[in-house]
Amino acid sequence: MQDSILTCDVAAGVAVLTMNRPEKLNPLSDAMLAALEAQLAAIAADAAVRVVVLRGAGKAFCAGHDLREMQAGRAAPDAGAAYFADLFDRCGAVMQMIPAMPQPVIAQVHGIATAAGCQLVASCDMAVAAEGTRFGVNGVNIGLFCSTPMVALTRNLARKQAFEMLVTGDFITAERAREVGLINRVVPEGELEAATQALAAQVAGKLGAAVRIGKRAFYDQIAMNLSDAYAHTGAVMVENMLLSDTDEGIRAFLEKRPPGWTQQG
Asked: Is residue 129 domain-shared with residue 246, that is, in the same domain?
């Protein structure tokens, strides 16, 4: 339903998730987090979906947590301690779902991506942003250090750049975000959807089984030391090589013809 807080449209192996609360700049409210968790879980189990695009409706990608909702949590007898702990746990779980999904997830970013919204961009596998987009982890400006967004941010950016953003609350431009590794590409605003769809289609055209194997290995090896990473990825390469579609892909390359993939396995 197009009036849903989170819409999902699937075509040609690409699922487009749209955070649909534009009047509030698509905050990661309790309802939005629940919707994202349910939809990401459903997509992860859908072999027909090969790539996911995550975007925001209206004039912004995502402005982070819903501060009014958070403040309402203070009415509890414990001043909100249990609610806040649960909120950040739920948000962290959603962020961890994205790299754990078998499909690559591309953030399509415009307007602003702030605090947990910037965390969401950093959690995605790739990101394309419109010129003029601003990124920030600006909670420190209102007295709340963005400690949970820091987890994703420090796994994308150089340490000093990440700390500067966290401790100053300053925004960075899309061009700077690309320079420091937060996003992949910057395009004119009018070309954002087309450019993101082109990237998604390019990835969707690869052998799905190989991409799933590769994405899993990508995140697994990052957490390992060098020798363990090589041992692990060597075993992954064996797994990949034994796929019948990989055999077909290599034969097709050697025979100078398009591969006849079954996209199974």
From this structure: no
* Same domain assignment for residues 127 and 139: yes
pLDDT of 2 over the 60 cut: no
Of all residues in the chain, what percent carry a pLDDT higher than 90?
97
What domain range is 144 assigned to?
Answer: 6-204
| H/E element, 217 | helix 208-222
Q: How far apart are CA 204 and CA 11, in angstroms?
A: 11
CATH of residue 222: 1.10.12
pLDDT per residue as tens digits for the range 29-75: 999 999 999 999 999 999 999 999 999 999 999 999 999 999 999 99
What local confidence, expressed as pLDDT, does residue 172 receive? 98
Residue 156 and residue 66 share a domain: yes
186-208: b or e for each residue (b if 16 or more CB lie within 10 Å)?
Answer: bbeeeebbebbbebbeebbebbb
pTM for this model (two decimals):
0.95
Contacts of residue 220, Cβ cutoff 8 Å, sequence gap at least 6? 232
Q: Please state the domain count of the chain.
A: 2
Containing 35, the helix (H) or strand (E) segment is helix 30-44
Per-residue model confidence (pLDDT) at position 264: 55
Residues with Cβ within 8 Å of 125's Cβ and at least 6 positions away in sequence, in order, are 98, 99, 104, 105, 106, 215
In a domain, 131, yes or no: yes
